Amino acid sequence: MAYMEFVKPNTQIDFVRWMKATTIVSVVIILIGIASIVWHGGLNYGIDFAGGSLVQIKFKEEPQIDTIRSTFKMIGLENSIIQTYGSHEIVVRTPEVRADLKGLEAKIETSLSTAYPAGGFVIQRTEVVGPKVGKELTKKALLAIIFSWIGILVYVGFRFEFRYALGGIIALVHDVLVTLSIFSLMNKEFDLNIVAALLTIIGFSINDTIVIFDRIRENARKNIRMELRDVINLSVNQTLSRTILTSLTVFMVLIVLFFFGGSVIHNFAFTLLVGTVAGVYSTVFIASPIVLLFEKIKPSAITRKK
Amino acid sequence: MFNSIKFRAALTVLIFLAALFYLTPTFVSELPDFWKEKLPKDKIHLGLDLQGGMHLVLEVDADKAVDSTLERLSNNLKESLMENKIRFRNVDRTSDKMITLELTDPAARESFEKTLGNHYPDLEIVNSETIEGREKIYLKMNANRVAEVKKMAVDQSLETIRNRVDQFGISEPEIIPQGDDRILIQLPGIKDTKRAKNLIGKTALLEFKLVDDEHSLEDALKGNIPEGGEVAYGLHLDRETGRQTSAPYLLKSKTLLTGDALESAKVQISDRFGEPHVAIKFNAQGSDDFDRITGENVKKRLAIVLDGNVYSAPVIQERISGGQAQITGAFTMEEARDLAIVLRAGALPAPVNILEERTVGPSLGQDSINKGTWSCIVAGILIFIFMVIYYRASGLIADLALFMNIFLLLGAMVMFGATLTLPGIAGIVLTIGMAVDANVLIFERIREELRTGKTPRAAVEAGYAKAFLTIFDSNVTTLVAALFLFGFGTGPVKGFAVTLTIGIAASMFTAVFVTRIIYDYFIWNRKITAISI
């Protein structure tokens, strides 16, 4: 019986040959990303990290940013960032944190009611993050990412070998850096949800990497005399069908989230889309070469047996 | 036993039924009576971002509580010194929380120390110096006591805020301490957030002070505030014009009575204008004090001061016995009600600052639920079709497992009382993707084995055996990441970690264990010769 197959069995693509070139591509993307981050003066931190206030307002009719900005003059908010957000919605961001309990909402309501009739707009969401909390959230987010790397390093090192763990981690760092680079290039806002997305990417990419490492381990044991280079090629090819299928289903899901998930989830889905692509790419082209590189420096216990 | 299809199928059905059992209240709006009485009736717990509501992180300014304790101590100390006929001058508080005073006669030092030792164990002498024949002494509160005061301030604020929120009538509020001096407040479904913030954040320190009519208010406003006096303002809002005016009062600083002496406070409507006011009733001690104070100060004005604002300053017509009084001031019904609540719940021992505030309107929450649900359905259908096209009958088995996976995930969330947030819905969608991955891994392996010419039975066995280790390792590593997300994440991010963790566990069960039962059934019992994969 014939199967439906995207990748024919016995496909033999020489992935290892491309690895040098792809590594250069990755490094270039990351360098451009870093340059962009430096040029923008850091990532475009949302209020979660930078501190500040955010108000999301929904209008009955398409809002005019200029009108809104001019009404904001009376409350001293004319210099805040006003963005359209989905249809008929705007998000106002200001670095200010008002400690008084009356808050921003009341002021915005009063100022907007000079230009819009009552019921013409609804405040959907207000967020105020003090600078102290912002700093703590930044610290926690960084810790979460770094500790998840260490945790994965330890687990993979324990289940496989240290060089595999190292290859996996470098691939993860690569994914996070590439995603951040794209983020900075598009000047998208970086908030807590994006950290959750980054951590998902980490989990997802390591998932992918482990599948290939698992094959490499299996094939290396089965074919003791085979060069590691060929073992890697064989393993990547054998799992290629699965890699494509899984990425495709995940991608499908993310596309749906991206288009139908609503405004709040939009950036989240975008990050995951970028990260998934980076993750699959790094699994094939970054994690394995590092294992190979270490083999050249220090042959592993398994291959030395021959 | 684990090899028996019947046993495995029974276990699966049992788990499925358990999930169904926990999910029933979420999907069925009208539960039968017997269910309401005995069985779990919790619906799936929605995060504030989905159901709307307010999330607040407050910081108790515990330093202020230390300051006020210090002020009280220094006032008491003055009185004790006078009682003991120890002559002193220039009692002062420094910015670094010290009390300084000068003893006019250095010889009195010994009796001063004795008074201190007997009545003020919390104060200690840090330093002293002799200036122009006077002994200047620096006093400090000892560190243990400072820590105690701070802790008390936080504990008491927590209790007070809890009281206020309870009386305000919000269902399922969550008020928990966080760190040393923080309070996390979550009020689901609240609509009037301004009012809630006002209610929670108000210090509500009620004081009764005499108005100083002996000195000139004009002079005081120019800066010549008499000894033992202070200027306070009364705010008056004209409802018709919306203009706020403030009137100054010259008060005597000494607080005669505070809100601590209250027994109750409630809203009443005055007969004459139909305007609401707050009627207060003092406790026994408070009634006696009030009786004495009003008796001693007939024809003087008594100011009712709340958080430094003068609400009213009526003239005491006669001695008031019975311990009843009222606070007037053009209140709306809501304002009067909220004032009564804060007075009943008591004052905050220290001011609180809002560190973090997140408010989501109910319509945005509903919108998110709708969009999240739609995303799940659309993604589910896409994957369903894709799997059936690619893997045929096996794809159908995977789809069945997927459906069960989501079901189990939601059921487990209700069981553990976990919160579903917006990123949590994203986590579910992601789980869908990952669950499919496990089946893809197994199916690809089975195909590989079949290609080598194995029988369906051998191919399925080998396929599951080989894929299992991969699935296990990859899922555990994802779990490691999810656990750190849970440990360090806050709010919605934590919700995401919860769904991801439960989702991974559920997908291991459905994608590996459940699908295997179906294969085994067809291979062992129906003896099929070819697998549709």
Write the layout of secondary structure elements.
The complex is a heterodimer of chains A (about 300) and B (about 525).
Chain A: H1 15-39, H2 47-50, E1 52-59, H3 65-72, E2 81-84, E3 89-94, H4 103-112, E4 121-129, H5 131-159, H6 162-185, H7 192-222, H8 228-260, H9 263-297, H10 301-304
Helix pairs in contact in A: 1-6, 1-9, 5-6, 5-7, 6-7, 6-9, 7-8, 7-9, 8-9
Chain B: H1 5-27, H2 33-38, E1 45-46, H3 48-51, E2 53-60, H4 62-83, E3 88-93, E4 98-103, H5 109-119, E5 123-131, E6 134-141, H6 143-168, E7 174-178, E8 182-188, H7 193-201, E9 206-210, H8 217-222, E10 229-237, E11 244-252, E12 257-258, E13 262-269, E14 276-282, H9 284-296, E15 302-306, E16 309-312, E17 324-327, H10 333-345, E18 352-360, H11 362-416, E19 419-420, H12 422-451, H13 456-488, H14 492-525
Parallel strand pairs in B: 1-19
Antiparallel strand pairs in B: 2-8, 2-18, 3-4, 4-6, 5-6, 7-8, 9-12, 9-15, 10-11, 13-14, 14-17, 15-16
Helix pairs in contact in B: 1-11, 1-14, 4-6, 6-7, 6-10, 11-12, 11-14, 12-13, 12-14, 13-14
Description of the structure:
The complex is a heterodimer of chains A (306) and B (533). The longest helix of chain A is centred in the C-terminal third of the chain and has 35 residues, at 263-297. Chain A has 2 domains: 15-45 and 133-304, Multidrug efflux transporter AcrB transmembrane domain (Multidrug efflux transporter AcrB transmembrane fold, Up-down Bundle), CATH 1.20.1640.10; 52-129, Alpha-Beta Plaits. The mean pLDDT of chain A is 84. A 4-stranded antiparallel β-sheet of chain A has the order 2-3-1-4. By secondary structure, chain A is of the alpha+beta class. In chain A, helix 7 (192-222) packs parallel to helix 9 (263-297) and helix 8 (228-260) packs antiparallel against helix 9 (263-297). Helix content of chain A is 66%, strand content 9%. The two termini of chain B are 28 Å apart. In chain B, strand 10 (229-237) and strand 11 form a beta hairpin. The longest helix of chain B is centred in the last third of the chain and has 55 residues, at 362-416. In chain B, the strands form 6 sheets. In chain B, strands 7-8-2-18 form a 4-stranded antiparallel β-sheet. A 4-stranded antiparallel β-sheet of chain B has the order 3-4-6-5. A 4-stranded antiparallel β-sheet of chain B has the order 12-9-15-16. With 533 residues, chain B is α+β, with helices and mostly antiparallel strands. Chain B is built from 14 helices and 19 strands. In chain B, helix 6 packs antiparallel against helix 10 (333-345), helix 11 crosses helix 12 (422-451) and helix 11 crosses helix 14 (492-525). Chain B has 3 domains: 5-52 and 361-525, Multidrug efflux transporter AcrB transmembrane domain (Multidrug efflux transporter AcrB transmembrane fold, Up-down Bundle); 63-142, 2-Layer Sandwich (Gyrase A, domain 2), CATH 3.30.1360; 202-358, 2-Layer Sandwich (Gyrase A, domain 2). The model of chain B has no long low-confidence stretch (mean pLDDT 86). The interface between A and B is large, with 74 and 80 residues. Strand 4 of chain A pairs antiparallel with strand 18 (352-360) of chain B, so a sheet runs across the interface.
